[in-house]
Amino acid sequence: MTKVFDSGNVACALAVKDVGVDFVAAYPITPQTSVVEKIASYIAEGEMDAKYLPVESEHSALSAVAAASAVGARVFTATSSQGLLYMHEILHYAAGGRLPIVMANVNRAINMPWCLYVDHQDAVSQRDTGWIQLFAASNQEIYDSVILAYKVAEEVQIPVMVNYDGFLVSHSSMPFETLEQDKIKEFLPPLDPPWRIHPQWGGTFGNVTPSEEYVPYRYALTEDIKKAGDVIVRCSKEYEKLTGRWHGGHFETYRPEGAEYFLFSMGSMGKEMEIAVDLLREQGIAAAGLRLRVFSPFPEEELAALLPAGAKLLVFDRNLVYGSAGGALLQLAKAAFFNRRDSLQVIGISLGLGGEDLPASVLVAKAREMMEVCK
Amino acid sequence: MNKKIVQPISRPVIGAGGLTGTWRTQRPVYDASLCNACLLCWIYCPEAAISKEDRTIDYTYCKGCGICAAECPKKAIYMEREESR
After folding, report:
1. Beta strands, E only, B1-85
2. pLDDT interval class at B12 (50, 70, 90)
3. Which residues does chain B have within 8 Å of residue A217's beta carbon, measured at their own beta carbons?
């Protein structure tokens, strides 16, 4: 275990190096971040034994890692913002192909107008592509989530996207601890795919299917994604046993004891929310922080089970569902509670778009505005 | 890794594409008396519907594309209009 003081992108790159990735393909130019630059330098300096393929687009980057995954390699790619949108078609291919790909996505605003800063619209708009989406809020959580992502992806054979906030986390230096490679191997055994494309294999990958074969296949994917939520929690606990590091299961809760108001958010906003919760508690308001770590599969039942009757869920979305009252978290949370007959209230706003600064004071003010509406 | 997960993979089997013989509008007819057994028809047939041994044509899967008739240097295969089904 080494203590490192560096950026979120370096935490991600180090995790990729430490899990023993065989193949990395990436588009190296904007909107790319320094994560693949760091990986390229590890490979060039012989610190990491992997193939690195710089390609001409994000569409090609994900296509290349999908192909490498299909021949049995452990793969990685990273992108951000518009790059993720450009991958959209292949996101479906990768999930439909049941390929255990891990990708880092640095959450940044999407065009137009052009903006560089943190925003969750990129990842949220890829929700229905069949990927598992994790959201990390600190450099330590990024490092640990990448390792967790491989464990989960290879067990359930569904690709995993590790999201973290652009600039606030990706480019901010924080202390974090790595893990020895032999310890990682204890947690994450070498990749053993059930099939792989090979000249002697004699099979076909992604062949044309009539609807009677397509339907059960699609159902299997959605059922398996649903079940993956429990796998994520189980593997997180296993990882905690090995390292003592715990960032939460589906959620990270903060001061939930006797809480009436639950401040629900995702990404680094969830960490700032802890300060906001402290401030609200000082003002005599029974507030708690609820930071979502697993955006997809959205833990509907777990969220419903977590909140006591009469609780008020205040949703802070860093994205928009255009034309609706707020963002994706609000919609998903409302759906989770629609069939509950108690007096639980769900209310939400979208804020922090395009990197709009969200200090705890702003979060407190917004929370109090929502509390007024709840009354 | 879980081996029970439904995978998007397939293996070749006879008739994987269904009864493609029903697609035919013309059928190839083989005349053994003209044939010199060069096997070009067997090589070219995209459906592997021609026997290597005796050039009998499997009409269950032959789509009637006519490639065999076009390639045959001895004109031992000719295309005949399918009777209305």
Report:
1. 9-10, 26-30, 77-81
2. confident
3. 6, 8
Q: How far is CA A297 from the centre of its chain?
A: 10
Query: Does the domain formed by A252-374 have CATH 3.40.50.2300?
Result: no
Q: Is B7 on the interface with A (CB under 8 A)?
A: yes
Query: Using CB atoms and an 8 Å cut-off, which of residues 43-72 of chain B contact chain A?
Result: none
Considering CB atoms only, which of A195, A220, A224 is closest to B9? A195
CB burial of residue A279 (10 Å; 0-12, 13-18, 19+): middle
| Long-range pairs, A253-257, Cβ under 8 A, ≥24 | A253/A288, A253/A289, A253/A290, A253/A291, A253/A306, A254/A288, A254/A289, A254/A290, A254/A291, A255/A281, A255/A287, A255/A288, A255/A289, A256/A288, A256/A290, A256/A306, A257/A288
Per-residue confidence band for B84, with pLDDT thresholds at 50, 70 and 90: low
pLDDT tens profile B31-69: 999 999 999 999 999 999 999 999 999 999 999 999 999
Is the predicted pLDDT of residue B85 greater than 60, yes or no? Answer: no
Percent of chain A surpassing pLDDT 70:
100
Domains annotated on chain B, with CATH: 20-81 (3.30.70.20)
User: ipTM, 2 decimals?
Assistant: 0.72
Quick one: closest CA in B to A224, which residue?
B5
Low-confidence residues of chain A, pLDDT below 50?
none
Instruction: Assign a CATH topology to domain A3-243.
Output: Rossmann fold (3.40.50)
Q: Is the pLDDT of residue B3 over 70?
A: no
* CA pair distance A102, A110, nearest whole angstrom: 22
Contact A38, A9 (CB under 8 A): yes
Considering only CB atoms, B1 lies closest to which of A193, A204, A220, namely A193
Residue showing tokens 């190096």:
A17
Confidence of residue B2 (pLDDT cuts 50, 70, 90): low
Name the segment(s) of chain A with CATH classification 3.40.50.970. Answer: 3-243
